[in-house]
Write the C-alpha cells for this entry.
Amino acid sequence: MSTETFDRIATIREFLRAAGAGGRSIGLVPTMGALHDGHGTLIEKARKECDVVVVSIYVNPTQFGPDEDHERYPRQAADDEVYCEVRGVDAIFAPSDDQMYPEPLETSVRPGIEARRLCGPFRPGHFEAVLTVVLKLFAITGPDRAYFGDKDFQQRILVARMVRDLDLPVEIVSCPIARESDGLAISSRNRYLKPEEREVASVLNRALRVARQRMADGESDPAVAIEAARTVIDLVPQARIEYLEVVDPERLQPVGTVSGPVRIAGAIWIGETRLIDNLECDSKRKRRRKKKAEG
Amino acid sequence: MSTETFDRIATIREFLRAAGAGGRSIGLVPTMGALHDGHGTLIEKARKECDVVVVSIYVNPTQFGPDEDHERYPRQAADDEVYCEVRGVDAIFAPSDDQMYPEPLETSVRPGIEARRLCGPFRPGHFEAVLTVVLKLFAITGPDRAYFGDKDFQQRILVARMVRDLDLPVEIVSCPIARESDGLAISSRNRYLKPEEREVASVLNRALRVARQRMADGESDPAVAIEAARTVIDLVPQARIEYLEVVDPERLQPVGTVSGPVRIAGAIWIGETRLIDNLECDSKRKRRRKKKAEG
C-alpha cells in the first residue's frame, strides 16, 4: 500500500473519515518535515499502535520569531514522501499556508505556566503558536493518538496539558530522544552546522550528562549541577549558552532542592545554529540503585 | 424514548459514541440550564436537523466575574429534565465542577478582537472563559452542529470565529432571539426582575428599535441613532445604561457611518438585573424597500 499525500483540509478529512470508519484508530505524527530518525521512532511506534498512520508536514510560520529560521528551515517534500512510504505511513498531510491560515487568526490557544520557563522567554509567542497549530491539526485529523518526541519535551508537556485542560479526545504518546553516536540529539536543524561546528555540537549533551551525574551522586543543589554543566560548555569557544535549567518534570518550574525526579534542559548556540537537549534525572532512584550495587 | 442524563465526561462520551455510530449526526445545545423558550427554539431546531440531540447544562463558574451572579443563577435540574424530555432530547450532559475543572486550567482559548467591544470591557475574562468551556464541551460531545441563540450574539460570533480559526469540525447554527409579547428578550435572568422592574424591562428593546428605525430612515451617523435610543431609556428612572453600540456584524467594531448591515446592541441594568439585547439593522435594504414602496 502506498502513502497518499493531501494538501487540503477537506480531502484529508474525507480520507480519514473513510479510513477511520468502524472504530479503526488513527495515529498522528505532527512534523515540520525534513524527516529523520527522531521522526522515524515516532512513526514506527504509531505504525505499531494504530490502524491508520498520518504524518503531518507543515513548517508553521506563526511559531517562528521574526529573527528565526523560518525561511531557511529545510524543506524536502520528495525525500519525506519516500521516508514515509518505506515506513508504511498511510497518509501525509502537507497543507499550504493558505489552507492553514486563509486569514490571520483571531482565536488562539493560550498556554499555561509551563510555557514561561526554558525556551519560553527566548521565543516569545512560540508555544502559543505551537499549541494553536497542534489543536488545528488535531481538529483536522481527529487522531486517537498523537506522537511527540522528547527532544521538544517542553512542547510535549504543554500539548499534554492542553489535552487535559480542554478534554481533547486524543492520547499523547512520547518517544525518547533519538541521538547520533556522539550523543547529539537528532534534529532537522543539525544540518545547519558546519563540519567544525558539528564536531563540537555534542557538548550540550555531555554537559547535561555531567550535571545529571552530579545529581545522581547526591548533589541536591541544582545550581551546583548547572555550574558543572556550564564549565563543560565554556571549554568550547564556539558555544554560547542560552539557558541551562533544572525544573520539575510536571510544571517545568525551577526546583530549589533536588529531591526527586527532575528534568535538566538547555539551549546553546553554535555559530548560527540553536541546539536544545534535555535529560530526565531521578536522584533518588539512582542513589538507591547505587546503594544496592555497593551493598 | 426518554432523555438520559449524564454527569460524567466518560459516560456521555460512551453514550454519544454509540448513539453517533454509523454517521448519525449529533446536535449540541449548550446551556446554563433554567431552560426557557429561547432554549426551546434551539432544541427544536436541533431535533429537526440532527439524529441525536444533546443538551449540556452547566453553570460555568469561570465565566462569572467576582461580583456577578454565579451564586444566585437559577438552577432547576428537575424542571430542565422535563423540558428536555417533552422535546425529545436524547441526552442531557450536566457535569459537576469537579468533572469540568478537576484542577485549575492552565490552557485556555484566547478570543480575538470580537471580544473587545460590547460586553467585553464590562466582563473582563468572560469570553475567554466562555470559549474555553465551549471548546471543552465540543471536545467532550463531538457534535456535528452546535446551536447558539442570538441574544448572546457576541458569544455566537466569537464561537463561530473560534471554529473557523481552529478548524473545529462543527457547524455553528444560530436562532433568532425569542421574546416576550412586549419585546423583552427571554432570558433566565429575567426572573431576577421584581414585578415593577419587569413592567419597564422592555425599554431596552424599544430603544434599540427606535435606533434601528432611525437608521432605516436614512440616518447614517450611528451616534445620532444611539442618542435616540438613549433618550428612550433615560425616560425610565430604574434603568441604567451600561453600553449602547452600533457595530459591524462580523468583527463587532464600531462603525463610523452606517452604509450597510450593522448590529445595534446594548446592555442596561434594571435594579440588580443586567439585561442585554441586540437587533440586526440593514439600512440599505430597508431604504431600497422603502423606495420601492414609494415608487
In short: Chain A has a mean pLDDT of 95. DSSP finds ten helices and ten strands in chain A.
